[in-house]
Amino acid sequence: MMKKYQHGDVLIKKLTSPIKETKIEEYGQLKGQETDLTDKNKRWMQEDRVVIAEGEVTGHAHAFNFDNNPNVKITLYKNTDRYGESSQSDTPDFMRITGGPATITHEEHNPIQIPNGDYEVSQVREFDYISLEARRVVD
Amino acid sequence: MQEIVKELLSRFSFIKERQNKNGRYNKFYARNGKFWCYRAFGKYIFKHKGVVYATWSLPDSAEEGMKNSIFSCDKTGFGEKPKQGHGSSYYVTYMLEHLQIDHVSKHHSVSITGTIMSKNSEMIEKGVEDEKHRAIYCPQYYYLSNEPKVKYPFCVNMWFNWDGSPSKDTLENNEYYKYSKAMLNAYLEGMRMRTNRMATSRRADKKAIALVDRAELSNDWSNVDAADTFNIRNVSTRRKMLSHFTVEQIVAAQNPETVDTDELNGSKYELIKFPQTVDENAPFTHCYYLKMLNVSTGETHLEGVAPYIENNDTVFGPFAKRNTLFSETVQAALAWRDRDVKDKSDSSYQSDGEKNKTFDKAVKVYNQPVALS
């Protein structure tokens, strides 16, 4: 049974084998992006936190704050499909946590702790019966 | 061109020589020097054993010309014989044009939800069907200008009478024609029904917009039914409805039916459905919503989930089998929402049909989160 953590609309699913051994074969080249807490120039880094999903309107974010996560290192990966184009969402596709557990927070949800390991990150979806298509839920 | 062909087919063709306006003969000898072709209308035309053939390029021999002919003609009519020519309906459409038959060619690209089993030429030849592929598409068709109501599809190995209608043999014995005709009939009937539905939908749309406009002006929404939200196609008017009614009110107005309840993650879930009126042409009959309690905020809310489609064999798009609910249950709805059923395989490429097959074999369960907030 897959171990899954749900934080609002964000799903964090534990991978049964390390990212590079399984997912490179399945999805193609992965672009790793280290976001340890001293690196402030990377894609998911903000001043005092690592953001893995952010609401476009509210600015609320699912994030790992520096204060809650001393000595935690989070490596985030964006999936590149077989045609070399990154998926549209800004949410990373995979995440590695070391030095954890890491605590994820959000303005509207209680924090949860996620132990060390490799994870797949995604967002829950909903079906819009007006446009007749599925879309990501953003809270 | 028809005149040239008919002239060639006459008993006295051997004593005639054609001249162009400049007095030069349009006569070409084939490379083996044994027979000659006319050059006319961008084609090479030659006669062999009472049959006239047209080719794109100067053939090396009569055998090669027959094999690569665009079409052939005899006294009964013209067309494409089996195992001759290019075996493509693309060239069949050309025949009427080149032989100057008074006709109108048509093709429509609007797709219709399929109920006919899709077959390619190979499947028609073998007499087999693939139940996984249902579709209705519009085959290219034509009608004669003096008989616009009778529509004929183009197909492989089609033979025409000299008036432009398909020959009796084509109508009765050509399997490609029979399949194309069934597809054309289904398409035209589908389009007729679609036009009617769109007219009904437009009337409902106009009526709902007028009611909303009136309610806005008078600030009296008592005559506006929340159920009309799905009838409104105009996004700004729909937004007005959504600003006045809550999603719960809009869904409640549809008289939803609870199809499954479950208690998971310390919360009660309900899967509700109501008849869909958004697009009657869509392959699903009901809209499905998951009603749940947000454990963090304590609020009840609704999330649309993909529809459940019984005996779904759709291969493409949002209603493909793998993109819809695998059963009419809360757990299936949650598994869909969380993308718990993986339809990817180890292979680097999968066709849409193969993805559905992988989905069939996948373990379909909802994995409850070990931590939820």
Model description:
The complex is a heterodimer of chains A (139) and B (373). Chain A is mainly beta and 139 residues long. Chain A is 6% helix and 47% strand. Chain A has one helix and 13 strands, in the order E-E-H-E-E-E-E-E-E-E-E-E-E-E. Chain A has a six-stranded antiparallel β-sheet with strand order 1-2-11-8-7-3. A three-stranded antiparallel β-sheet of chain A has the order 4-5-6, with no helix packed on it. In chain A, strands 9-10 form a two-stranded antiparallel ribbon. In chain A, strand 1 and strand 2 form a beta hairpin. The longest helix of chain A is centred in the N-terminal third of the chain and has 9 residues. Chain A is globular and about 45 Å long. About 4% of the residues of chain A have low confidence. Chain B is α+β, with helices and mostly antiparallel strands and 373 residues long. Chain B contains ten helices and 17 strands. In chain B, the strands form four sheets. A seven-stranded antiparallel β-sheet of chain B has the order 1-2-3-4-5-6-12. A four-stranded antiparallel β-sheet of chain B has the order 13-14-15-16. In chain B, strands 7-10-11 form a three-stranded antiparallel β-sheet. Chain B is elongated and about 90 Å long. Chain B starts with a helix and ends with a strand. Strand 1 of chain A pairs parallel with strand 17 of chain B.
